[in-house]
């Protein structure tokens, strides 16, 4: 498919998904109390992609688009768009009559400001999403024309409110973006207005009466509660205090139990735009992981199915390549890559180490290293304990290290003071948005979180990534990413472990909360509660 | 009457001692009965007690709970004893100096002691371990740092009451050095309460260590009971055995140490000697 056809197809899809018919009569009113875990550091979704911010901010801010569960574009602040024949101009027609929560009108100036001055400057992924945008023209209040240096088809997948929120120019212009008041009292155009943030307890949002979708939202109020202890969260769900918990707020073991309990349901929907991948980042600049053979041996020695079955209770899918198998839908995923076994290949790993001349000493130890673990909960600790055992079998003796989040982030992404690190990344809806940041030489950005901490640098791969970002032809693009996956399976600067499946646990009284591909990072505009 | 006879009058203390000896033997022979690393994935995960060759069941990764308890005993006793030794050491030095010299030195040292006493000890221990990065050393240091003030207070009190006794004055007249008087004359006379408080402190230290490990602040490379409970906590409803057995181990150990401590107290406390 070339770019023009691709764009046309997207336009068609656009028309098809205007307003889906409701499956059941909605009841207006009521309050939805849901779990926000952990408490967000701020509500500045234009500054940080931190998960808990995503649970709250997209209810307040909106993006140009939303996406439905089939990843089709749903109009939000932009009513329609048009891509020029050469792919270098994208014109958005904005919705009329939209106002910010403070009453000011939403215009094309806000769009230009949000993208050029905010997202491209201070957002973690914005510089990637909008890398080709050179300027934005605003011929009138409701038209925004994006001028691109090169075609950027992936950009249209990065316009959700979670990924690229539109922020009010009149409140942000000329202020210090990183220390804005908006971080703790956001003003958006979304279905809910920010009311109150009681630190350590909850965030309260109330219905935006002036919302542009008539009759919506159905709910009068949203309350995001912070409950630090996992078993307390489960108890709160069971006794009806909260009705919704996503992103593992309810531990898998309890989710599996609630799934079989009347009145509760569990779904893996609502994560398709996120595409989370559990992985190991290797420090490729120092022994033992400066040697690709050792990195591959680690990948071979880990039993991916064991991790999924015993730690994540069956929710997950073994990784088989640098790209998630979810990219098969767009033809970018390549099957049959070596070095990502489902079950541990101990003999293969040992053969690799032997061939590389890394021999065991008297105690059978070939190499020693410290494994850092993402401090996001018990599951990761269990995974670390498992890996310690699994790697001992191939003679790699490891020490485990747990630290608090800021120390860990600093160690991995600012000080580079680590050997290897278990983590998970969102691969998002296009490799340019979620995958390039692991591997590109230009993504060795000291101090920026969740980028190329391996400090892997391969000019051949850089060239392929640059070509892949701009290639409009789907077949050629698939070829490029096929080569990318081949190189990465051999060099293995990052060993993908498994495609994570996050669980959302909800009370059956809550309806239509998963209408967007963004799931819990969506707006909840159509959610309603059976009284 | 000999010490043992005095001690044995307290039946509970004898039972406690028996349990403690058993636990010590278990710790010492852990590597004989469970030669494999207690973290090793020994078999089918979540096996109930008695199944798949697991006496006390296995946890979510298939680690043997019984092996964990045996090896964890080593950690618990080691940390309990080490931390207590360090705490008693610091406490004796601080208390002896304060009690013996009195005046401004006493004032200074006791204000420092009070400063430590005003901070809730467990929270302080969490803070220290979090700052230092969890490891055996940091845990021992943290427990010692939060435990010594009680010893210091006690030793100071004893020194205050002993320093003006005739035998001490006699030592002064003989020209003995301060250090010699403190260590050779006064300290042996106030050792009994220190031994009692020390023995009870071992129990507290084990509890603090378990609490830290439960909260995920234990040394991740060393098996301990607190770690087992912390790791099994989320499984409580589906695999009760994972944290129940280590919990019983902690309960028995702490109980045994307390009983023994009381027995020592009975035996060493002259006021209780005639108690029947």
UniProtKB/TrEMBL annotation, chain A:
A GO CC term attached to the entry: ATP-binding cassette (ABC) transporter complex
Single GO biological process annotation from the record: peptide transport
Domain Solute-binding protein family: 72-426
InterPro entries cross-referenced by the UniProt entry: Peptide/Ni-bd, SBP_5, SBP_5_dom
Pfam family, one: SBP_bac_5
Principal location listed in the UniProt entry: periplasm
Keywords annotated in UniProt: Signal
UniProt keyword annotation of Metal-binding present: no
Signal sequence extent: 1-25
MF GO annotations: peptide transmembrane transporter activity
SUPFAM superfamilies reported in the protein's UniProt record: Periplasmic binding protein-like II
Annotated localization: Periplasm
UniProt record similarity statement: Belongs to the bacterial solute-binding protein 5 family.
Protein name: ABC transporter substrate-binding protein
Organism, as annotated: Thetidibacter halocola
From TrEMBL, chain B:
Residues in the signal sequence: none
Topology versus the membrane: Multi-pass membrane protein
UniProt keyword annotations, A-Z: Cell membrane, Membrane, Peptide transport, Protein transport, Transmembrane, Transmembrane helix, Transport
Highest rank taxon of the organism: Bacteria
Localization per Swiss-Prot or TrEMBL: Cell membrane
InterPro entries: BP-dependent_transpt_permease, MetI-like, MetI-like_sf, OppC_N
Protein name: ABC transporter permease
């Amino acid at each position: 498919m070339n770019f023009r056809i691709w764009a046309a197809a997207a336009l068609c899809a656009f028309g098809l998904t205007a307003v889906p018919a409701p499956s059941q009569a909605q009841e207006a009113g009521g309050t939805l109390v849901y779990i926000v875990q952990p408490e967000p550091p701020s509500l500045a979704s234009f500054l940080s992609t931190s998960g808990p911010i995503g649970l709250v901010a997209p209810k307040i801010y909106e993006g140009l688009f939303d996406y439905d569960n089939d990843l089709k574009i749903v109009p939000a602040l932009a009513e329609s768009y048009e891509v020029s024949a050469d792919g270098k101009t994208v014109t958005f027609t904005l919705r009329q009559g939209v106002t910010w929560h403070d009453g000011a009108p939403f215009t094309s100036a806000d769009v230009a400001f949000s993208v050029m001055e905010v997202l491209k400057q201070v957002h973690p992924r914005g510089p990637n999403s909008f890398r080709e945008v050179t300027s934005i023209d605003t011929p009138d209040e409701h038209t925004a024309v994006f001028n691109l240096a090169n075609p950027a088809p992936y950009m249209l997948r990065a316009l959700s409110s979670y990924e690229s929120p539109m922020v009010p120019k009149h409140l942000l212009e000329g202020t210090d973006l990183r220390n804005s008041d908006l971080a703790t009292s956001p003003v958006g155009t979304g279905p809910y207005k920010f009311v109150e943030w009681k630190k350590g307890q909850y965030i309260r949002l109330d219905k935006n009466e002036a919302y542009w979708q008539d009759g919506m939202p159905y709910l009068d109020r949203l309350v995001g509660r912070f409950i630090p202890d996992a078993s307390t969260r489960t108890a709160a769900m069971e006794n009806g205090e909260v009705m919704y918990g996503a992103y593992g707020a309810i531990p898998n073991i309890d989710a599996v139990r609630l799934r079989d309990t009347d009145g509760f349901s569990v779904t893996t929907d609502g994560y398709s735009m996120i595409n989370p991948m559990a992985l190991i980042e290797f420090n490729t600049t120092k022994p033992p992981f400066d040697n690709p053979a050792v990195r591959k041996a680690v990948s071979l020695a880990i039993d991916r199915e064991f991790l999924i079955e015993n730690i994540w209770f069956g929710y997950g899918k073994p990784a088989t390549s640098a790209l998630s198998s979810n990219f098969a839908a767009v033809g970018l995923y390549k099957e049959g890559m070596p070095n990502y076994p489902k079950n541990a290949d101990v003999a293969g790993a040992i053969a690799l180490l032997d061939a590389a001349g890394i021999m065991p000493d008297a105690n059978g130890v070939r190499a020693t290293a410290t494994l850092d673990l993402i401090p996001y909960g018990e599951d990761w600790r269990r995974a670390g304990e498992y890996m310690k055992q699994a790697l001992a079998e191939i003679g790699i003796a490891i020490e485990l290290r747990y630290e608090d989040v800021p120390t860990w982030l600093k160690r991995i992404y600012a000080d580079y003071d680590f050997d290897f690190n278990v983590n998970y990344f969102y691969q998002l809806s296009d490799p340019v948005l979620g995958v390039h940041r692991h591997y590109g030489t230009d993504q060795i950005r000291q101090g920026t979180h969740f980028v190329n901490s391996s400090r892997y640098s391969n000019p051949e791969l850089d060239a392929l990534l640059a070509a892949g970002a701009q290639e409009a032809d789907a077949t050629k693009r698939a070829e490029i990413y096929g080569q990318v996956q081949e190189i990465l399976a051999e060099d293995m600067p990052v060993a993908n472990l498994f495609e994570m499946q996050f669980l959302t646990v909800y009370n059956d009284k809550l309806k239509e909360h998963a209408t967007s591909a963004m799931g819990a990072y969506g707006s909840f505009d159509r959610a309603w509660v059976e009284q | 009457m000999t010490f043992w006879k005095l001690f044995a009058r307290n039946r509970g203390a004898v039972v406690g001692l028996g349990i403690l000896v058993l636990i010590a033997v278990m710790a010492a022979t852990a590597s004989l009965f469970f030669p494999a690393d207690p973290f090793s994935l020994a078999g089918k995960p979540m096996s109930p007690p008695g199944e798949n060759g697991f006496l006390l069941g296995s946890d979510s990764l298939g680690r043997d709970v019984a092996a964990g308890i045996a090896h964890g005993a080593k950690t618990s006793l080691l940390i309990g004893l080490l931390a207590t030794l360090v705490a008693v050491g610091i406490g004796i030095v601080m208390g002896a100096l304060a009690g013996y010299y009195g005046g401004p030195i006493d004032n200074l040292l006791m204000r420092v002691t009070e400063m430590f006493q005003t901070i809730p000890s467990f929270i302080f221990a969490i803070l220290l371990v979090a700052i230092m990065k969890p490891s055996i050393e940091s845990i021992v240091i943290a427990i010692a740092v939060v435990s010594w003030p009680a010893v210091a207070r006690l030793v100071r009190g004893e020194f205050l009451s002993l320093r003006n006794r005739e035998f001490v004055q006699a030592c002064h007249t003989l020209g003995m050095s301060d250090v010699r008087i403190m260590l050779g004359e006064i300290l042996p006379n106030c050792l009994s309460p220190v031994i009692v408080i020390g023995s009870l402190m071992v129990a507290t230290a084990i509890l603090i260590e378990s609490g830290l490990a439960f909260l995920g602040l234990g040394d991740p490379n060393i098996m301990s009971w607190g770690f087992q409970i912390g790791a099994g906590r989320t499984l409580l409803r589906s695999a009760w055995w994972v944290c129940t057995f280590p919990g019983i181990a902690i309960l028995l150990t702490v109980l045994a140490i307390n009983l023994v401590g009381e027995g020592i107290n009975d035996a060493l406390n002259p006021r209780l000697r005639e108690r029947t």
